[in-house]
Amino acid sequence: MIREYDKLFKYFGIKPFKDVLPELRKVAEPHHLMRRGIIFGHRDFEKVIDALKTGKKFAILTGLMPSGRMHFGHKMVIDQVIYYQGLGAEIFIAIADIEAYAVRKISREDVINYAVNEYVANYLALGLKRERLHIYFQSNYAKEYYRLLQMFSRKVTMAELRDIYGEDVGPGKIMSVLTQMADILHPQLKHFGGFDVVLVPVGPDQDPHLRLSRDVADRYASELGLKRPASTYHRFMTGLLGGKMSSSKPESYIALTDDPDVAVAKLMKALTGGRPTAAEQRRLGGEPEKCPVYEMLSYHLITDDRELEKVYTRCRSGEMLCGQCKREAAERLRKFLEEHQRRLERARNIVDKVVDIPDF
Amino acid sequence: MIREYDKLFKYFGIKPFKDVLPELRKVAEPHHLMRRGIIFGHRDFEKVIDALKTGKKFAILTGLMPSGRMHFGHKMVIDQVIYYQGLGAEIFIAIADIEAYAVRKISREDVINYAVNEYVANYLALGLKRERLHIYFQSNYAKEYYRLLQMFSRKVTMAELRDIYGEDVGPGKIMSVLTQMADILHPQLKHFGGFDVVLVPVGPDQDPHLRLSRDVADRYASELGLKRPASTYHRFMTGLLGGKMSSSKPESYIALTDDPDVAVAKLMKALTGGRPTAAEQRRLGGEPEKCPVYEMLSYHLITDDRELEKVYTRCRSGEMLCGQCKREAAERLRKFLEEHQRRLERARNIVDKVVDIPDF
Question: Is the ipTM above a cut-off of 0.90?
């Protein structure tokens, strides 16, 4: 996995995030995902640090794919967004309903329902504030945004789309890609606030879009004054049973709306970094680096670094076995979900004040 | 030429317009372009007649390509639009600025300038009223329209686009086509008035778009309640020197903003349906059916049928030779342009009240 990410450094010009941590520390306490190397790479993050230093305004752009339930794998992005919002960033959140509808072929009704009741409601419950916040459906936004995606069609070629997205790229995919380019670049337009510095926090699988959007920015630099966006890259969470976390396998993830009993049961069945026998584990220690339960703790359930280090040490030394660790993690998970789901109920009541819901 | 149009009847299901003239006459005096067979074909025009009979609301959709000057060849469409506006139709006019920019690669500045100062201003000077009128830039309209064009990307395939537009169809063309489908079908949406009956008057070269839009309507019939648009087909004007009227050959057309002296000079140099010698013409008569000057008269300069018939008879009988005919036509042309250009000056002052001009 880590070797996979190394390619991004080597071939695609992504830089290690740890190198910018010292400068960031001068202006803000880094997020625990940054401190722990979960956010591992960036392009042009210096622009964000510079904005923080000089008080220059900056924006965060993120997207969500409303094609199913929101789980802890999705939570990582919005945690970062909330962090930047706390630092004064303007937040733009694109609901990728057009990609969900035109490419993934989900009905409009389901798409809108997932977007509002799974994603946006959970975002608010997680602490996203309504100030400096623009959550929009790709199908329900401003004309200047649509003008941008229409204009981009002039300077993007079939050849490059095929290179990135495969030979059978069709109208739905092309529309989605152009729409996504507008998502990434529109906060720079005067109409949307004229944000010179826009940061897009993504998983490494999204980097081809980022590279294309940087190229598109260059192509429209003189015509529209567009600049390249900055981006950060975070590691993906492993599925609870190993392998990928996948929306089509409910046992691979814990959803933010899972009943706490169900969630705990999933966690208790999770793969760990434990050894074949208890005796062996007491002797060699566990391997938290390979452990989905440790990931849940370090990505989500323990924000205090010293507390997390205690867990790490107890595991690594063989002092704590997986059963005990899981029980402690389960308690944290249950507490988190119970509190979150209480906030979620209140969030559902204001969700339509935060996003304009399309009528078809 | 006429044989070319016959194919449309034979293979594509377009019906002769003359067949609906008697029914139309029961509710409205047909336009001179209809009476003279210049509008020669239709699909579903019965729906329009039915709307006129029952007082049901109906809409006209037309587009303009802001890639150069407006000439008499373009005037034919807006003459029809003005006719239908007089009969109570709601008028939608799409400025195809996205196609001009993304496919024809004209700068935004030129596109906007052509649209406003050539087309829209001339439309108003020709008599288009501001009531029940929606003139919009494709890049500067309502989100429900953009949602439509985004959604259409799901059910249109590369294969059919290649069939219609050629193998090298790219993102710009695809965006233009989807946008055009939204142009044709959006007046049916509740947001835009919910017009069940929408008529699109076009030249026969536009029929592939109409056929695609009818297919697209079928594909979204249950999801969005879309219905097939009706359409009419008019003959193209011949260029003044024979062949096509072409924007890239100023001597082939008379622009509505041509100086009357320049316009008259172009007309005086025009090809005619005359015979090689005056003697021959006196004996055999001229051939108005082949004459660009007679076209100018019958399409534009003489609306009274009896007056036009006099010209026809004097030509056909050999009584009037081309020189005389041209001098009379030139006088009509000069009078038309002088009056039109006076109205145009006033129109230019209100053009920004009629169309919302995009700021980039």
Answer: yes
SS3 B356: coil
If you write DSSP's letter for every residue of B191-255 in order, what string do you get?
GGT--S-EEEEE-GGGHHHHHHHHHHHHHTHHHH---PPEEEEEPPPBPTTSSB--TT-GGG--B
Within an 8 Å CB–CB cutoff, is residue A109 touching chain B? no
Each domain of chain B, given as residue ranges in start order, spans: 2-236, 250-345
Say whether residue B303 is in contact with chain A using an 8 A CB cutoff: no
pLDDT at B7: 79
A161 close to B (CB below 8 A): yes
- Residue B12 neighbours by CB distance under 10 Å: 15
The Cα-based distances of B77 to B17, B123, B128, B225, B299 in angstroms read 16, 10, 12, 28, 11
Question: Which chain B residue has the Cα nearest residue A177?
Answer: B171
Quote the CA–CA distance of A171 and A93 in Å, as a whole number. 24
The pTM for the full model equals: 0.96
Whose structure tokens read 């760990």? A272
Q: What is the pLDDT of residues B234-261, one digit of tens each?
A: 999 999 999 999 888 999 999 999 999 9
- Rounded Cα distance between A296 and A10, Å, is 29
Contact A153 B171 (CB under 8 A): yes
Report pLDDT digits (tens) over B15-43: 999 999 999 999 999 999 999 999 999 99
Residue A244 in 3-state DSSP? Answer: strand
Residues 6 or more apart whose Cβ sits within 8 Å of residue B67: B100, B104, B106, B111, B114, B247
Report CB contact under 8 Å: B153, A139: no
Distance (Å) from the alpha carbon of B204 to chain A's nearest alpha carbon: 26
The residue among A103, A138, A147, A186 with the most chain B CBs within 10 A of its CB, best to mutate, is A147
Residues of A in contact with B161 (CB under 8 A): 171
Which among A143, A156, A179 has the least Cβ separation from residue B150? A179
| Shortest CA gap B224–chain A (Å) | 8
Q: Which fold has domain A250-345?
A: Tyrosyl-Transfer RNA Synthetase (1.10.240)
Question: Across the A/B interface, how many CB contacts are shorter than 8 Å?
Answer: 104
For a pLDDT cut of 90, what percent of chain B falls above it? 96
Please give the mean pLDDT across all residues of chain B. 96
User: B154: nearest CA in chain A?
Assistant: A102
CATH architecture of the domain formed by B2-236: 3-Layer(aba) Sandwich (3.40)
Helix (H) / strand (E) element for A285: namely: none
CA A93/CA B262 separation, integer angstroms: 57
